[in-house]
């Protein structure tokens, strides 16, 4: 499944793709990733669902213009505009990392309607951010001037650290590539610099307003966002259920893909019955 389509929004170019037929399922990625980590799952589901992938502005194949904000609020607005472009009402949404905060904000503040929401190792409530993330947040301009080979080594090491079992070289290449070169390198530090935890505090205050079915899925070995956050998030969302996946880190997609696919398929099947 390729992101062959483009949507123009407020000077940004959003890359997206669609495949299959049936009920709509929309995937949201996080940082420092792209829709690439959802592609195998979207491909598998396209037999029974219409699946949508997109790269947030500032990520993956979407535009990375300096001066275009990439914070949670902006991404939620972009998501709402894209949903309107797709003419979708009440799709199933599956989100990872800060795609969780974006999809939650679009629903809680932008009033986007979902049939269900699956939150996979998400950035959703405070606190968040690894020590490296916090260091970059405090020193974005300094790190943006690093020699390209040092920057690439840092990005590859950072992404690798999100996996508990380790990543294949080709997988790491695919995830790191958007953050290299004259456009990718400054974009990597810029999106971290614009991170604002206030959006998470605002989301947290409204979680008890959620009335849609929510499934929280978490890797037990997630060192970026520990399972304690999953338990807190589950407790804050009345209409939620929780699943912990053994031997999986933050990149559960690569650590335990079969277990994650089972979770997704079972969840969507339950929603179809209900």
From TrEMBL:
Keyword S-adenosyl-L-methionine among UniProt keywords: no
UniProtKB keywords = Hydrolase
Q: Give the transmembrane ranges.
A: none
GO CC, alphabetical:
membrane
AB hydrolase-1 domain mapped to chain residues: 25-262
InterPro entries (alphabetical): AB_hydrolase_1, AB_hydrolase_fold, AB_hydrolase_sf
* GO BP annotations, alphabetical order: acylglycerol catabolic process
Molecular functions (GO terms): monoacylglycerol lipase activity
Cross-referenced Pfam families, in alphabetical order?
A: Abhydrolase_6
Q: Which PANTHER family match?
A: HYDROLASE, PUTATIVE (AFU_ORTHOLOGUE AFUA_2G14860)-RELATED (PTHR43798:SF33), MONOACYLGLYCEROL LIPASE (PTHR43798)
What is the protein's given name? Answer: Alpha/beta hydrolase
User: Species name for this entry?
Assistant: Streptomyces bathyalis
């Amino acid at each position: 499944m390729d992101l062959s389509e483009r949507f123009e929004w407020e000077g940004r170019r959003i890359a997206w793709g669609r495949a299959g037929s049936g009920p709509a399922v929309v995937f949201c990625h996080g940082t420092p990733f792209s829709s690439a980590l959802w592609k195998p799952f979207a491909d598998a589901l396209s037999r029974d669902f219409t699946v949508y992938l997109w790269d947030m502005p500032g990520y993956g194949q979407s535009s990375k213009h300096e001066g275009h904000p990439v914070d949670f609020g902006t991404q939620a607005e972009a998501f709402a505009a894209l949903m309107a472009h797709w003419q979708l009402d009440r799709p199933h949404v599956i989100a990872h990392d800060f795609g969780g905060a974006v999809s939650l904000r679009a629903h809680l503040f932008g009033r986007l309607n979902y049939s269900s929401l699956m939150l996979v190792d998400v950035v959703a409530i405070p606190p968040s951010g690894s020590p490296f993330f916090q260091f970059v947040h405090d020193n974005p301009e300094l790190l943006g001037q690093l020699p390209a080979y040092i920057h690439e080594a840092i990005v590859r090491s950072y992404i690798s650290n999100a996996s508990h079992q380790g990543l294949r070289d080709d997988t790491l290449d695919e995830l790191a590539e958007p953050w290299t070169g004259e456009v990718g390198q400054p974009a990597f530090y810029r999106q971290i610099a614009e991170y604002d935890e206030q959006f998470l505090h605002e989301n947290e205050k409204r979680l008890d307003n959620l009335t849609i079915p929510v499934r929280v899925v978490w890797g037990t070995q997630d060192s970026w966002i520990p399972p304690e956050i999953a338990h807190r998030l589950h407790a804050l969302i009345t209409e939620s259920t929780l699943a912990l996946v053994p031997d999986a880190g933050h990149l559960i997609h690569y650590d335990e893909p079969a277990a994650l696919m089972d979770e997704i398929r079972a969840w969507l099947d339950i929603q179809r019955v209900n």
